[in-house]
Amino acid sequence: xxxxxxxxxxxxxxxxxxxxxxxxxxxxxxxxxxxxxxxxxxxxxxxxxxxxxxxxxxxxxxxxxxxxxxxxxxxxxxxxxxxxxxxxxxxxxxxxxxxxxxxxxxxxxxxxxxxxxxxxxxxxxxxxxxxxxxxxxxxxxxxxxxxxxxxxxxxxxxxxxxxxxxxxxxxxxxxxxxxxxxxxxxxxxxxxxxxxxxxxxxxxxxxxxxxxxxxxxxxxxxxxxxxxxxxxxxxxxxxxxxxxxxxxxxxxxxxxxxxxxxxxxxxxxxxxxxxxxxxxxxxxxxxxxxxxxxxxxxxxxxxxxxxxxxxxxxxxxxxxxxxxxxxxxxxxxxxxxxxxxxxxxxxxxxxxxxxxxxxxxxxxxxxxxxxxxxxxxxxxxxxxxxxxxxxxxxxxxxxxxxxxxxxxxxxxxxxxxxxxxxxxxxxxxxxxxxxxxxxxxxxxxxxxx
Amino acid sequence: xxxxxxxxxxxxxxxxxxxxxxxxxxxxxxxxxxxxxxxxxxxxxxxxxxxxxxxxxxxxxxxxxxxxxxxxxxxxxxxxxxxxxxxxxxxxxxxxxxxxxxxxxxxxxxxxxxxxxxxxxxxxxxxxxxxxxxxxxxxxxxxxxxxxxxxxxxxxxxxxxxxxxxxxxxxxxxxxxxxxxxxxxxxxxxxxxxxxxxxxxxxxxxxxxxxxxxxxxxxxxxxxx
Lengths: 449, 225
What we know:
Chain A: InterPro entries: HAMP_dom (IPR003660), HATPase_C_sf (IPR036890), HATPase_dom (IPR003594), His_kinase_dom (IPR005467), HisK_dim/P_dom (IPR003661), HisK_dim/P_sf (IPR036097), Sig_transdc_His_kin-like_C (IPR004358), TCS_sensor_his_kinase (IPR050428). Chain A: It is an enzyme of class 2 (transferase). The complex is a heterodimer. By secondary structure, chain A is of the alpha+beta class. Chain A has eight helices and 14 strands. Chain A is rod-shaped and about 155 Å long. By secondary structure, chain B is an alpha/beta fold. Helices cover 40% and strands 22% of the residues of chain B.
């Protein structure tokens, strides 16, 4: 679940990274285009427009010859943008021109003229950004200046842009994937530690890299928290171990004294029976006490669980066999449907204990002549009985320590059997769940397989 | 039997000592681990009752020292820890039996006597057959006959009977049966053993013959003619 979420988060980070990188790349390219191409082109246009205005005035005021002279002077002036022009008579004859060709029809807008110049076997490429001016007498003036470099730049931007964008996205995705994997790895280390601690290994700590980065700081904070938890836990454990020892010894003495007194009376005597019941009570006290400590130890992950491969079907069969005489005695039919179910990691003693507690309950609450079905599937055990079931509002509380549903108060029990079963299942990453069915009551003990 | 009791709790020790003496055993009591270790190494005992938590030298250490020096005297461990896995740990370390405090004296007595007997006769009779009065148990063939009549027993009933027969004449407690007959280490919620015994009794019942399995009140069962 978390893995899938993380994978998708990594993907999202990588994608976001690629998109951001692509956008900034596009922005840089656009800026370059504006600064290196658009603005200089505009300058050239302004200049050519101004020149056209000036030259046309010369023609109007001083006549054709003056214009030709002006044009020749303009050609001769050194300029980083070579000047081009053509003066064409109304009949289409060129009066003067330094461009090889021009459009036959008058153009209303800016256009380019290829004006390559051959010189000493070489070729200089020129491209004249030009504008037409038509005089009233039909003479046509073309004025232009070279923008070959600007056009080259534009060409480069146009050609390189798609490749550049694709490359950016590819690098972006790769970089994003790497970045999110690096983050993911460190987060995973934290998750793994948290899981270990949750499963009972209280000594688990997040490894730090010693670089003092954000993750290290998080790890240090978490470790401090885990340290504190462990300390508190150890304190509780010490207290409960001491309680175990300190209570057991007086209880042992109590039993011893009662037994000593009992020997003073002959069996069958009223006082003997009284002391006998007192002894039974102390045995019951001991049983409750043992069960509580056991639950606490299992829940705290301190049970030295002896995990190995466990055949759930075998345990179910053995457990049913253990209770078969009781069922027979009470006229209850046992039905076993044993599938093939193997738990790769389990403590057979504890699992037997859990199932026997559930079966014990089923036998206690199923009326005489009823039936109990024990099913083993690959996911775990199901115990269904034909008993009266449990009030819906009590279902959730069944695994609480000492909880006993009102409907069963009349039947002996200490309310710890299911708590122990739940703790055992939790130790096996399983779960214990209950539901009422039309036929009775169903307990499911499921394991993650 | 000569029994060494190493237990630091005065009241409990006195009680155990009195009880065992009343049953005809000779008991020597040590209140701390150091004395206990000395007694264990210097004298010969039939059974040693060893508390786990002791001042001086810990019970487990005494046990390890005994086993390391080849002393195979049966040891019954007493412990106020009493968790199932503590028991497993104790047995693994070489104790013959493990009893959690608090316990009923009858439980302790039954276990001490069973441990003492194991010391004397640790293997089954060579013929692989156990005989108690008119009951014959063939351990290898898994066949039980009473007065020549073959009894149809389930595997579990057979194992219960064998456990009782090996301790014939001595009390076997419910807890002992649970530990020895079932392959799981667990606490039953109810006295489930009684039902199994009652079934076994029914099957062994033969009209004119006297019952073999007797209930000992507040203790357990005994198999005797």
